[in-house]
Amino acid sequence: MKGITDYDTLLDEVGTGNGCEVCKPAVAAIFASLYNETANRQETIQDTNDRYLANIQRNGTYSVVPRVAGGEITPKQLMAIGRIAQKYDLYTKITGGQRIDMFGAKLHELPPIWEELIAEGFETGQAYGKSLRTVKSCVGSTWCRYGMDESVSFAVEIEHRYKGIRSPHKFKGGVSGCIRECAEARGKDFGFIAVEGGWNVYVGGNGGATPKHALLLAEKVDKETAIKYVDRFIMFYIKTAQPLQRTAPWLEKLEGGITYLQNVVINDSLGIAKQLDYEMQALVDSYVCEWKEAVETPEIRERYTHFVNSEETDNNIEFVSLRDQKMPKEWA
Ligand code: SF4
Asked: Is 283 in the pocket of ligand 1 (CB under 6 A)?
């Protein structure tokens, strides 16, 4: 309401004290969602994963996860990941989100690894952030004889649309080319399934500790309408969910449930549809790759040192070999 865009001003104008460990991450998340502030620019109030743009692993090393939109990857890109993982001796694993994680990077290795990945056309996968993870797709009508529509192109388009958007929690999507549902779109925060006459749109599905099937938001709509509804759903979720609340518990607690949500998103019962459309488009248009920004900005690169006032690297991390790859010593 006051148009405040940084933590210190917020504290001066409406806060008390020096700020605490409860309000800092909450404020960081709200700024990130409202202004698409990258983690780089909010670094003093972000946690470790956002501060270093990587997930810290249990042995103190970091993961590297490039985006593979829709799970589609070229042979050249596959070879590039293989080459870079081999060069830096990283453990590699194909994930459930249809991308390739690389583990075991030391802090000082992150910028050069990302420099090489970016040169090969990759960008951050934001696996460290409360943001869009992946949009899983089946092979769809391009290759599958059952396919009703082209699920891969839709998944690629939608993953690029929502990448980088910060939200109360991580969120995922799925696109299936027919009701056989090979992409498990109904297990995702939003999902599209091709049916006779258009796309069915589902929202509020989650995996995790309390798995939940998504609910049907709209039936047999064209692609543009499907995107418009999911745009509004995501913006409405971002603006009304509690911090760290995923879409399923949010939808469960929403008074009136899916019917209420349909009214907001489809029938514009609150008169905010245009505003939600505008806000979503502003987030989409303001995307930048945080890792590109990090490797090109000397002040950000300086964060990737193990010790203050020393160029030394951390040589205390030990690995062993298991199934032809390196593993943290304590888990082998
Ligand atoms: S969901 Fe349907 S179109 Fe997609 S791979 Fe499975 S059977 Fe084929």
From this structure: no
CATH of domain 53-124+290-307: 3.90.480.10
pLDDT score at 256: 97
Residue 31 contacts residue 5 (beta carbons within 8 Å): yes
Which atom from ligand 1 is nearest to the alpha carbon of 176? 1
Q: In the chain, where does the domain assigned CATH 3.90.480.10 lie? A: 53-124+290-307
Instruction: Give residue 130's pLDDT band: very low, low, confident or very high (50, 70, 90).
Output: confident
> Rounded CA gap, 233 and 262, in Å?
9
pLDDT in tens, 36-48: 776 666 555 455 6
* CATH H-level superfamily of 130-288: Sulfite Reductase Hemoprotein, domain 1 (3.30.413.10)
pTM assigned to the model: 0.90
71 lines ligand 1 (CB under 6 A): no
Cα–Cα dist 250/160, whole Å: 24
Encoded amino acid at 328, one letter? P
